[in-house]
Design brief:
Length: 126
């Protein structure tokens, strides 16, 4: 492959990644505290909230990412005692989607970027 199509493909992956980063920051700023209020009996979320509460927007992004990761695997998290399974079930679907969809999409785009780099590495023999 020549460098131009590879650069275009990488650009087509990087532009949505940048948009997702801004979306994650916006979601964290607007919704993380509301989501934490819906999960008052989750000890792990309380601990994470108190740890990152003074870190500003970056702390909110961290808290949102951790909560989103817990929501991706609710049965495992409940079995380990990190969250209350009933509270997670009662959490509105909007909040679950707001945290998990950007997390999954960003991860997929990141792995596509890694796969593109591996493809270039193995096809050009570098």
């Amino acid at each position: 492959m020549t460098e131009a199509p590879i650069g275009l493909i990488a650009g087509l992956i990087l532009v949505p990644m940048i948009i997702i980063c801004f979306a994650i920051a916006f979601i964290a700023h607007k919704y993380v505290e509301t989501i934490e209020e819906h999960l008052p009996n989750c000890v792990y979320i309380k601990t994470i909230s108190s740890t990152y509460s003074r870190a500003g927007l970056l702390g909110k992004v961290m808290r949102g990412g951790i909560i989103g990761t817990l929501l991706l695997m609710p049965s495992l998290s409940a079995r380990r005692g990190l969250i209350d399974a009933q509270e997670v079930k009662n959490l509105p679907e909007l909040y679950k989607n707001l945290l998990t969809i950007p997390l999954i999409t960003g991860s997929v785009l990141f792995f596509l970027l890694l796969a593109l780099r591996a493809l270039v590495y193995f096809t050009e023999g570098n």
